[in-house]
Task: structure prediction
Amino acid sequence: MTHTNSTRFAGGSGFAGLRERFAAFRGGIRGLVMAALGLAIVLLVWQAIVRAFSVPVYLVPAPTDVLVALYNDRILLAQNAVPTITEAALGFLLGNIFAILVAISFVYNKIVEDLFYPVAILIKTIPIIAIAPVLKIMLGNGIEPKVLIAALICFFPTLVNAVQGFRAVNPQLIELMHVLSASKTQVFRRVRFYAALPYAFAALKVSVTMCVLGAIVGEWIGANTGIGYLILQSMYVFDTPRLFATIIVASLMAIAGFALVTWVESRVIHWDPGENF
Amino acid sequence: MTHTNSTRFAGGSGFAGLRERFAAFRGGIRGLVMAALGLAIVLLVWQAIVRAFSVPVYLVPAPTDVLVALYNDRILLAQNAVPTITEAALGFLLGNIFAILVAISFVYNKIVEDLFYPVAILIKTIPIIAIAPVLKIMLGNGIEPKVLIAALICFFPTLVNAVQGFRAVNPQLIELMHVLSASKTQVFRRVRFYAALPYAFAALKVSVTMCVLGAIVGEWIGANTGIGYLILQSMYVFDTPRLFATIIVASLMAIAGFALVTWVESRVIHWDPGENF
Amino acid sequence: MPVAIDLSQVSVTFGTGDRSIEAISEVTLTVQEGEFVSLIGHSGCGKSTLLRVIADIIPPTTGHVEVLGVAPTDARRQRAVSMVFQQSVLMPWETVLANVRMPLEVGPQVRRSPDAMSPHDALRLVELDGFENAYPSQLSGGMRQRVSIARALVTRPRILLMDEPFGALDELVRDTLNVEILRIWKETGMTIVFVTHSLQEAVFLSQRVAVMSRRPSRIARTIHVDLPQDRQISVKDSSALGRHVSRLRAVLDEG
Amino acid sequence: MPVAIDLSQVSVTFGTGDRSIEAISEVTLTVQEGEFVSLIGHSGCGKSTLLRVIADIIPPTTGHVEVLGVAPTDARRQRAVSMVFQQSVLMPWETVLANVRMPLEVGPQVRRSPDAMSPHDALRLVELDGFENAYPSQLSGGMRQRVSIARALVTRPRILLMDEPFGALDELVRDTLNVEILRIWKETGMTIVFVTHSLQEAVFLSQRVAVMSRRPSRIARTIHVDLPQDRQISVKDSSALGRHVSRLRAVLDEG
Amino acid sequence: YAASALLGSSAAAHSEPLSVQLSWLVDAGSIGEVVALQKGYFADRGLDVELLPGGPTANAIQELLGGTVDIAVGYAPQIMYAANNKLPIISFAATFQKAPLTFFSLGEKNIMSIKDWKGMRIGSAQSALPQVIAILDYNGLSLEDITFVQAQVPALLQDQVDVVGAWPTNTAALEPVTSNPGGYNTQSIWDNGLQFQSNYLIATKPTLDEKADLLAAYLEAVDAGWSFAADNPGEAIDILVAYAPALNPEKERAALDVMVSEYVFTDETMEYGFGNVSSERWQQTLDTYIAIGEIDSSMTHADVFDSRILDSVETTKR
Ligand SMILES: Nc1ncnc2c1ncn2[C@@H]1O[C@H](COP(=O)(O)OP(=O)(O)OP(=O)(O)O)[C@@H](O)[C@H]1O
Ligand SMILES: Nc1ncnc2c1ncn2[C@@H]1O[C@H](COP(=O)(O)OP(=O)(O)OP(=O)(O)O)[C@@H](O)[C@H]1O
Ligand SMILES: [Mg+2]
Ligand SMILES: [Mg+2]
Result:
């Protein structure tokens, strides 16, 4: 879903562009306050419910219990975040780089694409989590199976999006390159590559969250450290406040990854990918 | 990623439209053959590797072993597919209906949207799978926790997409309705609703696959039947061929769901959502 | 003749502080009932903003606006004003007929007001009878724009605001629609305010052409067009029209 | 004068069997070197297809094509033909200079051929010197189209094909670019084939206007334009031009 | 301590690598292994041991078969199912003399024996279902007489089940049950016909044939580790928590005390030594499983247990 108003409604593009910018500006200040308020309301209601019905802490802790756990276990949480971040980051790099390389090979070889792109879409529907144990046996122990699971989770969405991106080039630009007798590689390096970037980033934004989940699930098949390990361990001894605190750390990791990719995107894509000149 | 060429390159829309139709036509016949061939190659390579290195069947079964298991256990697989399909379908309905209702409430009340939409985006980053055990304890043993997990997995993506969809209305159409002094409800029922449909379907297509996974994970934490149960059980008794067969059934369920949603979409959206008149 | 639109000293500023943009500045313009006035000017000079003020989409920052003797909001509520945009802005999910009928089904007086037109009549007026059940995607660009004109006419507005309605069409289709809109104008006796980039089109259609200057955007000059009332398409190539266009070109180059 | 483009009995059919569309049918057309020929016709009549055949983007289904005495593929390899589209088709991720330099960096003769123009000179020719480091998004529509013209000129093509290059621009900008393309044509001595929907533009620019009929699409008529060689923008409003436009309109209405 | 670690690592240069798949996450249940590792007992015996933690989706036996590990720690049912599938694995010792699985109910329910389960909702991990069937059978009941639910301790507290299976060693999770004002009742599988042992050491048959001396050395070192933990529980817990910092020392200490006194060192270890496995007990267990139709009737204790390693090592008798 990367539709911007400006793409859909090319007619009023200058106008819509401005309006969006104003909205973003308003979102910047008022939006932040409202979001904080919204979060506060949700937390307060949660706290009130837990206290009013005196829900036992091993079932659902109150937000304050979770806050206390976040504070008390801050060192433990930080220590366990490190391996998970490492696995997720490596998996992210591995999965996405490989996906983009495969997508490139598809561009260069239409037959390979016709043969294996549908298979890729098929494999995409297999729940990776279900085959995690098999991967572990094939890869042994250590960091590899976790990285591979994170990578696999990233691989297919990025592949599909990158292929879409390489295809989504203005056909007139391709005709222009043809009139200039440009080679396939030149068309790729000067046109398709850039045209695919917005699609690739859309996929990266999804996969950065997914690869954190991948690393966590990877840790479930056997680890001494990591967020996934901590989730299991906390669940085993019913330390629910720490369990929730750990989940919050996991979701912070996902948010941070998302923010990082968005930032890189804003650096790399300095043009308006919605516009067409 | 719902960009069609025709939206991006409004200039050559008739031309691009035709070209696309030709491609789709070619994809229909040649594409199917190539896809089948691609799948066959992958399966053959897999079979060859398993046989050449005589990988023991309890580690990784050959495709033929899996086929045999698919055939022998067909009744077992079918029986266990039923509860999973039920849970996934109920979760799909519950999660998506609720998401769309919330999105509608956001359209009607800007303040509610400003308060809770960011919270929703935040919650979306929480790995649902990680909190599955907690949900189970809260909801007991029946079908409820599985449905709820499937629903939760659907809820946030659909909410975010529906809100985007309701916003993605041609601003000139809104101005037109304003000139006609149309009420908020009229604008909603005649314009926003339809404008949001393509976005909603994009979300439904994602969530239909996710809700199968949600139901499976739900079954992992406690069930006597279902695909998730069968995966665990097959793993526990070292019946790897059946494990793979079960995973295939899971991915067939996801594919079927996807096809169903796509079919409904083609019935409901009889106009070209990329075009703008 | 009574006054249809009366703008005096109207300014519109978008945003506040440093980032504010004065889109139009102290525009004064009077349009008589039944007049056909065109608005031309460079891109971004505020033509659309001016139409939006008349249609009560944006309130003026300063100045006074009267439409048919009342405030723009009241005129809008009475369904006295219709608007046509550059894109035809049809609802792709509805048939042509449903699109044209839509204005009769929304808004405060959902009950059919006695002086509304039947959607079929509106479609006949733009020569699209027979296409009632087609969807917008099945029509050519010119036909779509006809549908949006029919939609604007169905409420029998006394004022029709047109914002570059034919800007996206090719010239041959545009010529046909130019002749058609003149015919409709004569048949209905509406007041039309017409924004365009085409000097030729402005002269061909209007009784009066208002030229807007670059920022600060105001009405730089108004030119009366003394061509015969009955204009065939061949008038477009006439030397009389050519002279008017030359004058407008000169005014535009100044401002 | 030598022949630049020679099309004889050229037909193009898309698709096969029942679904096939004959886009152009037995078109015969000869363009002299240094000529400025416009191509007009209703939408979908095959104008773009004809240009694509000349540019060697599509092979003709039947018929014979010669460009500068050789096959279109050879002409293309020699960089003898450039093309400008309706959308400026710039690469939004590159600066203006990089966009204009691009043709010198791709293709078989990547080494700078001696008769290529410097990108700076090309930008000067379209009066965009000083905008080298701007990005396309920072330019107006007219400026973007100028960049795409500069990009077409940088290889010093002997033939320039223009497919509705100014169709998306507003009329005031279009007028300016009309004058400019005439100036460039005179300065470079190129052969130009120009597709447009605007009769006025076609007459104003060309020495000869070829009118294509509706399907089966062929060249219905070719009209010589006997306006003075030195055309100011005021010529657009002249009655001599008006007469030519009237004649074209008549031919178009026939076919 | 630093010096011994250094010594260990230099010794590791010539020592045999050995990787061990634990049955679960590292906690007090594997304290013997951790102590042996950290105090250099493995290194002293020329072993370079790598301890691999388990998890809910880890499958120790498959790891073993896949060759990624040399020894796996597992439970009796896993071994039986694998052997039943003709997989070439075999157990050679057991850290826990008694399988701890015990069924807890709140005092208010008055469930004093398995017979009282009739009509009740019985919860446990899915993998414990065969054990439930077996003890029902032993007590003249069948699965039809109860409602089986996959559940954990909180389900008992939420009144989603009447009885829940858990390891008494998980004192932290059981705390709300053990502190119930109305008291609580227990039925262990051990007392109800299923005399499993637990935390079996498992290897593939080829490993057992070819690397018997390594397995023996490993068993000796683990014995030393557990004996140390039994003698110095405080120091052992410190070592454990230093190794796995997410663990809570108090909770692990409580668990360790239960394990040492009830499960690892029993009357039988007093007589036969640490890690003892009884062939008779295996046969009895197999017969029970054969009776409920879970495994093939031709299975004997020789299919699941090989006594050669235990016979070759003199383990601590305490
Ligand atoms: N909602 C808005 N917020 C901020 N600025 C606006 C808004 N609407 C218009 N503007 C600015 O006001 C100025 C006038 O805009 P307007 O759309 O009226 O020009 P126009 O004459 O219709 O231009 P065009 O010929 O391109 O349609 C422009 O600079 C535009 O960017
Ligand atoms: N690649 C293609 N495949 C199939 N049909 C095509 C293709 N390209 C063009 N056509 C068809 O051929 C006919 C001529 O198209 P062409 O684009 O040449 O027309 P045109 O005169 O340039 O139209 P316009 O004025 O709208 O640009 C049209 O009916 C078009 O739909
Ligand atoms: Mg405007
Ligand atoms: Mg064309």
